[in-house]
């Protein structure tokens, strides 16, 4: 049956792929347009097409909000334990160690003190790159310690959230942080000290359901996704299609869930105005 035999043409070696273009372009998470990375970087990591604010690192965030060289980190040595001896495809200890090596920090929250146009503030910033910014025992403890120091020195507290919610590997101990941090924020209210919450993309789960939505002033970045459960889960539960742009910051502002939407380049000035006012 020689008719069906087809001689293969000799394979030509593929030309070497140039690495010059790798990493030069980004796809926007909101408008799905391809944008030039350097243009995004020059624009404070904001999409030039639709004004979507890309996630930024903790140190970039701190650099944008406080006066240069004034931030002093607290309690950076705190790290999580494994009280449940939790295992899924790998142990919780292994997951934590891998995240610590990747990010260079012990857990998903950085706390400390800095100056905003010369005024002392306590600043707490979630790190989404550490296990999705999930809130476990260490995150709850660090946030409470930051609030205790703010109470002692009568300082305002600014919290920047970017989180997927509570950390399942710590079970009920993680869920308890919702009540623990909420009680700490209530003390700020009793002491008449301002608590300002900034919601970055994304802010979800137990963090949204507790401390993130307790701010005296709640600010969101443009186009940020904010909610408790994801839209797909909600649609499957209620058997209805959700409105367009549901859970985006603009939708929440329209429905009274947040106080204002502020572009990244204007955040520091806005915080300065609010802190001076309070």
Automatic annotation (TrEMBL):
* GO molecular function per UniProt: acetyl-CoA carboxylase activity; ATP binding; carboxyl- or carbamoyltransferase activity; zinc ion binding
Composition bias (Basic and acidic residues) maps to 1-10
What cofactor does its activity depend on? Answer: Zn(2+)
Q: What class of enzyme is it?
A: transferase
Sites where the protein binds Zn(2+): 28, 31, 47, 50
Spell out the subcellular localization from the entry: Cytoplasm
Please classify the protein's predominant subcellular localization into one broad category: cytoplasm
The record, for InterPro entries, names: AcCoA_carboxyl_beta, Acetyl_CoA_COase_Trfase_b_su, ClpP/crotonase-like_dom_sf, COA_CT_N, Znf-ACC
Assembly and binders:
Acetyl-CoA carboxylase is a heterohexamer composed of biotin carboxyl carrier protein (AccB), biotin carboxylase (AccC) and two subunits each of ACCase subunit alpha (AccA) and ACCase subunit beta (AccD).
* Descriptive protein name: Acetyl-coenzyme A carboxylase carboxyl transferase subunit beta
Gene encoding the protein: accD
